[in-house]
Amino acid sequence: MNPPIVASSLARTPAADVMMSDQIDAIQANNAFALALYNQLRAGNATQNLIESPIAANLALTMTYAGAVGTTATQMATALQFGSASNASIFAGQNALSQALGGRAASAYAADLQLAADTGQSAPPESDYQLEVVNSVWGQQGYTWLTPFLNVLAEDYGTGIYVQDFESDPGGADALMNAWVAQETSGNIQNLIPSSDINDLTRLVVIDAIHLELPWQTAFEAYATQPASFTTQNGTMMATVSTPFMNLTNTYPYVDDGTAQIVWLPLANEQVMVAIALPHDDLPTYEAGLTTSSAVLEPPTASALVALSLPKISFTSPTFSLAAALQAMGMSEAFVPYGANFTGMTLGTGGDGGMNPNLYIGDVVEKADIGMAEDGVQASAAVAVVVSSAFTTVQSSTPPPTPVSMVVNRPYFFSVIDAPTGALLFMGHVADPTQTGGG
Q1: Claim to verify: residue 118 and residue 253 sit in the same structural domain
Q2: Are residues 284 and 411 in the same domain?
Q3: Of 283, 304, 244, which Cα lies nearest the Cα of 411?
Q4: Same domain membership, residue 211 and residue 103
């Protein structure tokens, strides 16, 4: 049984009703935020695999931003890279983008179903085609949530506020929210929110989850997968590990911009792409130079026959906090007890409207996973913004041409990109393909 929900009477705005300029504004802001956040996160993960979903973080934070006021709102807009775009433009653009992403799996399945019919092959299983972006907000019972905040949640993010009693049963609320995330990510993201982040002062939790599972446009043949050596690097120290490499010679969008070999690998129907950058120099140096216009994040303008050798990977991150990174990006006041201003969400409890609940962001947590195998790619992520009350002192946490050879046998950068819009869905790097993560 779903918990009771407080929601606006307004329906979600159809994507067709959103101006293209709003979607462009939102994607530009989202991608700029993606690079800024990634630059903060990669610094402490040079020798560890890293996977995160900037779009999940952005959607969760902009839903939270809809209730921010004053300096708190100004700092959040700066960190979220809104630039000159209006709040309404960002919200509307994210709405259109989320709905567009929601249609990618169905169109990919329809294309492959038709291809199977045309070639007399068996129909592919529909369960192999998934791309979902879902939102939820969970709020303390007895609070009066303001109409403008509820309207943004309804019109632009398709959600209301699920009522929970964090004060009396924080553990039960935590279990319910984690179960929701697990369900929406097909079981791939378990235990997103640590129990230590939810207590009797929690007042609101904003969650965005994304789950992707799609076949490659051209699958790797399992018989061609062979063990080979991958060289890891920790500063000046190098080591080799043996791991299975998938091998395929195929024509792909490809470029070598002088800093890296870059290949874009299309997933089914060529709407979602996996970009791989194999740096000529070390990975940290390459990543330090990344911008939103870097070659790996822009569609290559030419194609080449590529003899690609790519490690199989399956990696799950532990739950990690984005709080320190966001504060370093200028979003400081939102994390300050008695200093943050989220009175755009609620003015008080029990309908009296007169008592400031002193809400602030206690933590922003993310958990993600990715797998690349011969048949396709699976990736999931979820982000939760935990908003607490500062009624008492609480510490916040934080003839075929000669193929171009591309042997991805050392640390590399990757991104999962929505090709029609250029939106960055996942970003990360592989320092050691034998790492599986967990937690």
Answers
A1: no
A2: yes
A3: 283
A4: yes
Under 8 Å between Cβ of 266 and 417: no
296 to 14, 67, 145, 216, 412: CA distances (angstroms):
32, 35, 43, 19, 11
Average pLDDT over residues 375-400: 77
Average pLDDT over residues 36-63: 93
361 & 244 share domain: no
Rounded to two decimals, the pTM is: 0.93
The per-residue pLDDT for 398 is 39
Which residue range(s) make up the domain with 245?
Answer: 222-311+399-430
> What's the pLDDT band for 391 if we cut at 50, 70, 90?
low
Phi and psi angles of residue 254, each rounded to the nearest 5 degrees, phi first: -150, 145
CA-CA distances (angstroms) from residue 73 to 26, 87, 322? Answer: 17, 10, 18
Is the pLDDT at 65 greater than 70? The verdict is: yes
Strands 130-140 and 161-164 come out as: parallel
Statement to judge: residues 416 and 269 lie in one domain: yes
C-alpha span between 108 and 201 (Å, rounded) = 45
Mean pLDDT of 382-409: 77
How high is the mean pLDDT of the chain?
A: 93
Beta-carbon contacts of 297 under 8 Å, excluding residues fewer than 6 positions away, are 31, 275, 290, 415, 417, 422, 424
